[in-house]
Amino acid sequence: MKKILFIVVLFALVFMVAISCSKNNQIKNCTDLISKVNAAEITYGVNPSTANCQAYKTSLNNLLGCSYITAQEKAAYKLLFDQLTC
User: Fold this and answer.
1) Could you give the CA distance from residue 80 to residue 86 in angstroms, rounded to a whole number?
2) Measuring CA to CA, how many Å separate 66 from each of 2, 7, 11, 31?
3) What is the crossing angle of helices 50-64 and 71-83, to 10°?
4) Which residues lie closer than 8 Å to 74 by C-beta, 6 or more apart?
5) Residue 25: predicted pLDDT
6) How far apart are alpha carbons 5 and 8 in whole angstroms?
7) C-beta of residue 53 within 8 angstroms of C-beta of residue 84
8) What does the alpha-carbon distance between residue 22 and residue 4 come to, in Å, rounded to a whole number?
9) I need a surface site. Which of 1, 14, 34, 56 has the fewest CB within 10 A?
10) Series of mean pLDDT values for 10-residue runs along the chain (86 residues)
11) What pLDDT shows up at residue 70?
12) Would you list the DSSP string of the chain?
């Protein structure tokens, strides 16, 4: 009986660690997406070509799919996205 309890507890701990790592990876992914938006914004600001505008819109669109940014942040990024006319 102790062996079964040990296995159940061990499984629960492994499951919690896996979920935690997955969440951290998703947060890191969102952070990377924000960095890409910032880089694309700078590139577009320096050279406002159609290609740079499209790259900026693509990076914004990718970020809008991130579940770890707030509703206010999403609204701000969506506004930027909508204002870009490439």
Assistant:
1) 12
2) 43, 35, 29, 9
3) 160
4) 64
5) 59
6) 5
7) yes
8) 27
9) 1
10) 45 40 59 89 92 94 86 88 90
11) 85
12) -HHHHHHHHHHHHHHHHHHHHHHHHHHHHHHHHHHHHHHHHHHHHHS--HHHHHHHHHHHHHHHT-TTS-HHHHHHHHHHHHH---
Packing angle of the helix pair 2-46, 50-64 (nearest 10 deg): 160
Say which residue the tokens 């880089």 belong to: 39
Whose CA is closest to 66, among 39, 40, 44, 36? 36
Residue 56 in contact with residue 84, Cβ under 8 Å?
yes
Best CA proximity match to 74, nearest among 62, 64, 83: 64
